[in-house]
Amino acid sequence: MTDAAKKERKPESRWTAFVAIALALVLYFLIPQKVQPIPNWIVPSIGLVMLIPLFLLNPMRLTKETTWSRWVSISLAILLVLVAQFTIGYTIRELIIGKASGPDVLLDVLLIWVTNVIAFSLVYWELDLGGPVARRIEGTRDNRQIDFRFPQHDGAPGNKFWEPGFIDYAYFSLSNMMAFSPTDVMPMTTRAKLLMGYQALTGFILLALVISRAVNILN
Fold it and tell me: Helix (H, G, I), strand (E, B), or coil: what is residue 14?
């Protein structure tokens, strides 16, 4: 690897993803028990147990990766996504039955919506090109499957060695939940399209049901 490549592809910071995961765990704890299938302290506790060894392995920058750390990282992302889908399902049931009050509905959906954005951000971040560590290794792009294509990959000289970080995946996860479709980032594989399609669908359903519930409350 050239000196320029080493400089441009320096290891990604641990802190952006760490803060996002910590926020998601706090929000899961705050989500009302009525829309959770298990006690609300279990997922944050499991997430914290999984997060600690990952933080100790790479406290500042993501420079090291082992088989166990890779599986723990993926498992944590999957755990957050799966639990988010359960809470979405329970919330949809509450919205359809119509038992919740207006303020409760808005607060519950907001918490669930944000956790879903963070959870999918982590999945995209871990999925693309083998994850945050492998993504910055010379030759990775030639040997691994590219799941997402960013505008910076389209040949600008200053972006020759550019690789996305967690903020980039968080941004397009957010835009996918808001626009219900890709914006500037294109899914390149079937699994990426399925994940983004499903995330957009959950965002649309939540928004549609909240609007319909609000109309009923106003009437």
Answer: coil
